[in-house]
Amino acid sequence: MSTAGKTMTGVRRVVVWRATEELPVSQPPREPGDIDPTKPQAIQLFSKVPTLAPAQFLKLRNRVDSIEGANLPAATTGARLTYEDTPPFHTTDGRPVRMTYAVVTEGTSANGDVSNLVTIVPLEVPVAPSDLAAVARREGVVLTWTAPDTAISGAKKPPVAGYNVYRFPHGQPADEFAVPVNTSPVSKTTYTDNPPYGPHDYFVTALASATAPRIESDPSSAVSVTFKDLVPPPPPTGLTALVETAGVRLVWDPVDAPDMAGYKVYRTEGTGIEQLRAIGTIPLTPVQLVTATNYRDTSVNRGISYYYEVVSVDKTGNESTRVKTDWVLVPKTP
Fold first, then answer.
1. Total domains present in the chain
2. Which of 36, 86, 248, 313 is the most exposed place for a label (fewest CB within 10 A)?
3. Rg (CA), the chain
4. Per the domain annotation, does 5 fall within a domain?
5. Are residues 57 and 137 in the same domain?
6. Same domain as 107, residue 89
7. Which of 227, 255, 270 marks a domain boundary?
8. Which residues does 203 contact at the CB level (< 8 Å), separation at least 6?
9. What per-residue confidence (pLDDT) applies to 165?
10. In sequence order, what are the beta bridge partners of 304?
């Protein structure tokens, strides 16, 4: 709607307005306990200076720029229109400044109302974290990165209030308005995420402020990783070897796991008279898993001692620890 209450039939441009306030040279003394270590100093210095009322803003505002109608599609992301401003971060003598913004939509026949006011204290924002790496482990996706040592302005060692970690579907564009996967700023240069199984992309940002509004660096370079089930199923229990005519039958209890695929069986041959020692292990099921809870080995040689091992395998291919039988002697005569 226009300021006259009429429907706007076309958008010519969106105008960006800004009012800049400098922190007064003399500030009232701070009271004990009035300093919050989690908030940047510049924001705290402005905390006792009231924000601009709409009438004050209209008197102090300056036109920053406009997005012309032909450029609106390129400046639109989803349902949001994006504009990037590059204001001064402080006065020439180093005092903090505070910015208040509003936008006005101009139509072909009338103008819209001034939007709501948003206020921000510009801070020295770190450059993006570097060397981001992601490794899939049993406990989740472990991300590590290197802390930034300069600000976007070139200042050295900017304060970093923490980090945000973002995850998005592999191969899809990142949403700069996305919500980080961490619920609070990450204080270290590592984070373990627990995503759904599948491929994912990640990037990390460094925070100039741990409190609202969100002020963070550009995103790091993105990394890709595939997270899959790396937790093995429980091992079989109750494994027993039964000597039969011309063979050995193995039986065991079923493994209760939702993603069970089957079992592998191994046989180890022994040699020696008083003290048996293993001389070789072979897989008895090298190609196809055993889906039953028993297996009959008919390839044994009479007069030879063996022991057997059984492992459970899930659908991802994770194997449990091996469960072993005692030595079994196949008699020379039935």
1. 3
2. 86
3. 34
4. no
5. no
6. yes
7. 227
8. 132, 166, 174, 219, 220, 221, 222, 223
9. 97
10. none
H helices then E strands: how many in the chain? 2, 22
- 164 phi and psi angles, rounded to 5 deg: -115, 140
How does residue 8 score in pLDDT terms, banded at 50, 70 and 90? very low
> β-strand 118-120 against 111-114: which pairing, if any?
unpaired
Instruction: Grade residue 6 by pLDDT with cuts at 50, 70 and 90.
Output: low
User: Domain span at residue 110?
Assistant: 11-120
Model pLDDT, residue 33: 56
Which is more confident, 30 or 143?
Answer: 143
The answer, yes or no, to whether the previous bond of 286 is cis (omega within 30 of 0) is no
Tokens 């208040």 belong to 100
Q: Are residues 110 and 135 in the same domain?
A: no
Tell me which of 102, 120, 138 is where a domain ends. 120
- Whether pTM > 0.90 for this model: the answer is no
Does residue 144 share a domain with residue 97?
A: no
Residue 1 domain flag: no
pLDDT of residue 2: 46
